[in-house]
Amino acid sequence: MEIITIKSLIKNYDGEGLEVHALRGIDLSVRRGEFTAIAGPSGSGKTTLLNLIGGLDIPTDGTLTVAGNNLAGMSAKELSDMRLNSIGFIFQAYNLIPVLTALENVEYILLLQGVGKSERRDRSRRILKEVGLAKEIDRRPKELSGGQQQRVAVARAIVSEPELVLADEPTANLDQKTGAGLLDLMHDLNHKKNITFLFSTHDRMVMEYAERLISLTDGMIASDKKKKSLKESAEKKLKKQR
Amino acid sequence: MKLFKESSIEVMLAWRNVWKNKRRTILTLLTIMVGCSMIIFFRATQDGSYEKMIEDSIAANTGHIQIHEKGFWDNQSIDYAFIPGEPLQSYLDKNSGIAATSRRVHAAGLVSFKNNTFGTLIQAVEPEREKKVSTLHTTIKPGGRYLTPDDGMRIIIGATLAKNLDAKVGDSIAMISQGFDGSIAAGNFEIVGIFRTLNPRYDQALIIMPMAQAVETFTMMGYLTSIVVRVKNTSDMEKTRDEIRALPESERLEVMGWDELTPELIQAIVMDKLFGYIFYFILLLITAFGVLNTVQMSVFERTRELGIMMAIGTRPRQIVTMVLFESMFISLMGVLLGAAVGSGLGYYFYIHPFDFSGYQKELEQFAMVTTVFPAKLTVSNVVFTSLLTFLFGVLFSIAPARRAAKLNPLKAIRQL
Ligand SMILES: Nc1ncnc2c1ncn2[C@@H]1O[C@H](COP(=O)(O)OP(=O)(O)OP(=O)(O)O)[C@@H](O)[C@H]1O
Ligand SMILES: [Mg+2]
């Protein structure tokens, strides 16, 4: 079953006088449970594509269906609700609300969804334990390392068990080892909970974790490969490095 | 505040954000505190000095209420004399809110001594009753005394007038005026006392004589020109005045309260209040801009954070609520501090009034009678000022709060 269906997607930006063709006709479908990376050089349109899928931006042309919703014609409020209920977001860095503890940051999503207090607590604690932060739950973001912060962001993105998690270069600010750890975690969650992950990267190592690798060049899909076995070889490589 | 409360996430976020930048918040609190306490304190000094000035003016000679024949106040002539009827007399005698009343006869006249002649206001009083109505008897200079009912051809005069005439206690001065019946009223009167009220109008021109003598000198035949009423509480003046006005015979009388009797003082107070309000408004604006600036800065610093909050599903309305709560917390704390400090200052200067009696001479030039100014703290001053400061702060934060909610999440997230 498709969770994302994209047809002839075009996105132009009005640059100063000059129109930027960020996406020039994308056709793509992603099935539930996929663990997909979007790769490509800087400026190829990775962020633009993720933002459109997440309903954070409006396409110039084409159709976009996400988790059963046709995004065209949805109001800002409906888009906001869709983001809250169906999508988890992980940004490159500084994802968290600084004045909230790790636990509260994770709880925040459930709170917006109106989940009752004790259930909220339990679920958030459990997820933080799963991402390996059982001891850090009461720390504020500035008391956590970059990798720990991204783990909290992952926990926040999946705590409400959304259908889709979008992550724009989630490992870009982490060293390779920490980045690999984060990807392991995401991959685990993908397997265990059957949550669809779509993330962008231009890190080779990260690409090799993906089960499906979509390469963008100049706003168009240059290649789209399924490669089940790559994760193992990536792990081997990492072990050799140590 | 450790735990989330249902639906109060905005409140909790606001509270924590307020304390994220402690230094800035404390500076803002101090701004509000200074603004709010200054307004409370200045208003207390105004309220206190107005009340003191009014009380001094009432006490010296004016009284709370004066009753005259219609037309007397504008003409100040003995021609407008009247005999109080039974209903008025019994009202004045029996009303429990009235502290004392005194009857007076006023006339214009000339006095001369040696080669000096001056126009004067002659005021005949019943000495024993008058002492309960006014404080003029307490301002007699040493060496003299106040009048007694049967003093006959004896008078007391204002200090400036005495100086101008070059007369002193024991001297006899000639006085000429017109009687109620149109006859000439004249005689030689012995000065038994000289008063200094500090009110230049009285000190320059007033002569006081006993009523028993005035009845003869001016051929009053039971008529008088005014009844002066002193009520127990100044605040009851209006009620008493209106009750007297409601009496049937008051149709031919003018019943005036102290505010109508001392229009210059009221005018001066109104002007002073107006300048006060302008000053307070400026202070309010300054504190409100302080809050606005703090909220604006805090929103600006958190642009990316707000963008992420909106991207993950926070509603713009929740952002507005959160930012407004921040300004409410800051304003509320500032106002509470301000109310405390303002009240403290007000209370201190109520106990220890401003004392300008050292500058009496200078103040007299400005016709200032009052030299000691206590502050007067009222509940309405503290509550109203605090409320207004709070409202100004919160109102001025609506703009940055709405701006925060209108952020485009994408553009906001791109900022670091
Ligand atoms: N808001 C914008 N206004 C104008 N042009 C934009 C805007 N956002 C992106 N672009 C342009 O669109 C193109 C695609 O940008 P995008 O951010 O999607 O690339 P990317 O693949 O994410 O690059 P990177 O790897 O550097 O993050 C670029 O040429 C970029 O300059
Ligand atoms: Mg990008």
SSE order and pairing:
The complex is a heterodimer of chains A (242) and B (416).
Chain A: E1 2-14, E2 19-31, E3 35-39, H1 46-53, E4 61-66, E5 69-70, H2 76-86, E6 87-90, H3 102-112, H4 117-130, H5 146-158, E7 164-168, H6 176-193, E8 196-200, H7 204-209, E9 212-217, E10 220-226, H8 230-241
Chain B: H1 9-18, H2 22-62, E1 65-69, H3 72-75, H4 86-94, E2 98-113, E3 116-125, H5 127-133, E4 154-158, H6 159-165, E5 172-178, E6 184-195, H7 200-205, E7 206-210, H8 211-217, E8 226-231, H9 237-245, E9 253-257, H10 258-261, H11 263-301, H12 303-311, H13 316-351, E10 354-355, H14 360-365, E11 372-373, H15 379-405, H16 409-414
Parallel strand pairs in B: 3-7, 4-6
Antiparallel strand pairs in B: 1-8, 1-9, 2-3, 2-5, 2-8, 4-7, 5-6, 10-11
Helix pairs in contact in B: 1-13, 2-11, 2-13, 2-15, 11-13, 11-15, 13-15
Bound molecules: adenosine-5'-triphosphate and magnesium ion.
Adenosine-5'-triphosphate binds at residues 13, 15, 20, 22, 40, 42-48, 202 of chain A.
Short characterization:
The complex is a heterodimer of chains A (242) and B (416). With 242 residues, chain A is α/β, with parallel strands linked by helices.
